[in-house]
Amino acid sequence: MNAISKQKRVPGRYALVLGLSTLVSAMANSASACSLYDPLMPPAQRVTPIQGEARLMPAVYRPGFDGFIPVANEASVANSIVGLWQISMISDGVPPNPVPKGAIVDFGTVQWHDDGTELMISGGRPPSTGDVCMGVWEQIGPHSYQLKHVALAWVSSDTPPAAGGPGPSPAQFLGPAIIKQVVTLDKSRASYQGSFTLDQYNADQTMQLVHISGTISGTRVTVD
Question: What are the structural domain ranges in the chain?
Fold first, then answer.
């Protein structure tokens, strides 16, 4: 009985091995025809990219635009808004803006960071009135960006009249100023132009004290 049983099991075992060999062979042929992975191919060749293969392109969706906006330019700092800039903000004089047209509202240096944050040091405000402020930005077009910037304004004895001074000594917190910008890089990526609004609020943000609008321009600072 044992001998007969073994003889009966042997053909089945060979059949199983033959079947697995056929399956592996078929899978190998299929993989070499339809996949980048081929078990018969040397490992060094398996990871070689195919020329002209499809690639993913970074893009964002913004309401009001026709489809997705490519943002591949963000992969290179030199082609993006990221970096250090010298900026100037000029009033457009459009009511209720109280600043005359053509007057400088502010100037200074700005850093746009690749994590979506921004930092500005104002040259138009005395340090005692709050000359350092921060913001957040996002890309809204191939080379266009929008920024929301929060400045904490103070008034002190050296605050100029145009900024609400002179004020008390020691300095007193006036309130937050919300600055919004939309800017576009030029073809050289060495400068940008855009528009801005500045809304100054009182300390508890229950009242808007002033609204200023105008244009903004920036020039990239390099190590050259």
Answer: 2-46, 59-221
DSSP state of 11: H
**Alpha-carbon 198 to chain mean position:** 22
Provide the token pair at 179: 């600055």
CA dihedral sign, ordered 20, 22, 23, 29:
positive
Of 170, 141, 167, 143, the residue nearest 155 (C-alpha): 167
Q: For domain 59-221, give its CATH number from 3.30.1060.10, 3.40.190.10, 3.40.50.300, 2.40.128.120.
A: 2.40.128.120
104-148 pLDDT, tens per residue? 999 999 999 999 999 999 999 888 788 999 999 999 999 999 999
Q: Kindly report whether the global pTM for this prediction surpasses the value 0.70.
A: no
